[in-house]
């Protein structure tokens, strides 16, 4: 599957994903940041700066984000 980004144009959909809580969906849909307390599950090996797929608990795609580790 492919998607369109502002940075790279057409790109492959990220393979790694994070799952967010149901109560976070409206906030994230409005462009809100995803804090660790909103993450229900994440794939192992996600690195700082990596693009990942954001999904809900039913594995429905919600968007993509770039991961930034908290300092």
SSE blueprint:
Blueprint: E1 2-5, E2 9-12, E3 17-20, H1 25-29, E4 39-42, E5 51-55, E6 61-66
Parallel strand pairs: 3-5
Antiparallel strand pairs: 1-2, 3-4, 5-6
Order of helices and strands: EEEHEEE
The number of helical elements comes to 1
Strand count: 6
Strand order of the largest sheet: 4-3-5-6
Separation of the first and last Cα atoms: 33 Å
CATH superfamily: PUA domain
Low-pLDDT regions: none
Which CATH architecture would you pick? Roll
How much helicity do the residues have?
under 10%
User: Averaging pLDDT over every residue, what do you get?
Assistant: 84
Write down the domain tally.
Answer: 1
Look up the CATH topology: Archaeosine Trna-guanine Transglycosylase, Chain: A, domain 4
Helix/strand structural class = mainly beta
State the major sheet.
4 strands, mixed
CATH class: Mainly Beta
Approximate shape? globular
Strand content: 35-45%
What is the alpha-carbon Rg in Å?
Answer: 12 Å
Oligomer: single chain
Question: Summary?
Answer:
The chain is mainly beta. The chain is built from one helix and six strands, in the order E-E-E-H-E-E-E.
Tell me about this structure.
This protein is mainly beta. It has one helix and six strands, in the order βββαβββ. The protein has one helix at residues 25-29, and strands spanning 2-5, 9-12, 17-20, 39-42, 51-55, 61-66. The strands form two sheets. It has a four-stranded mixed sheet, with no helix packed on it. A hairpin with a 5-residue loop joins strand 5 (51-55) and strand 6 (61-66). The protein is globular.
């Amino acid at each position: 599957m492919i998607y369109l980004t502002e940075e790279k144009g057409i790109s492959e959909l990220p393979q790694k994903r994070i799952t967010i809580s149901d109560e976070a969906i409206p906030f994230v849909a409005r462009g809100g940041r995803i804090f660790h307390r909103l993450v229900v599950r994440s794939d192992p090996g996600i690195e700082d700066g990596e693009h990942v797929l954001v999904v809900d608990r039913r594995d429905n795609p919600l968007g993509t984000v770039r991961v930034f580790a908290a300092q």
